[in-house]
Amino acid sequence: MASRLAQLRSKAAQASEFVSKHGCAYYKEVMEKNKQHVVQPPTVEKCQELSKQLFYTRLASLPGRYEAFWKELDSAKQLWKNRKDLKVEDLGIVTLFGVELYAWFCVGEIVGRGFTITGYKV
């Protein structure tokens, strides 16, 4: 256990050293690549204005999302009505999607409990 801790510390020190040497150059490179996305001047007021624009833009997109949801639901209902005409491939895709969804919920529960299976920490 102590050797693993020493290994972890050495790797953390190496990563810290790498970031301290190359972090500034990486930051400058990223900012240079994405300068078209930076609003000038970068003030608090401008950030608040952009935040409001984002909020109301997302709010304005709700009716379109609502319609898309109902269209998707209608197509799922049609699939269910014609389930006898489904191919094996379609059933396999639906089954895999269901298993994946269930697995994500299980993993989410485990993560939510602090990576314990039973909920009790040892």
From TrEMBL:
GO function terms (MF aspect): proton transmembrane transporter activity
Keywords: ATP synthesis, CF(0), Hydrogen ion transport, Ion transport, Membrane, Mitochondrion, Transport
GO cellular component: a single term: mitochondrial membrane
Matching Pfam families: ATP-synt_G
Subcellular location: Mitochondrion membrane
Coiled coil: none
Primary localization class, coarse: mitochondrion
InterPro entries per the UniProt record, alphabetical: ATP_synth_F0_gsu_mt
A GO BP entry: proton motive force-driven ATP synthesis
Family that this chain belongs to: Belongs to the ATPase g subunit family.
PANTHER family, A to Z: ATP SYNTHASE SUBUNIT
Designated name of the protein: Uncharacterized protein
The organism of origin for this protein: Oryza brachyantha (malo sina)
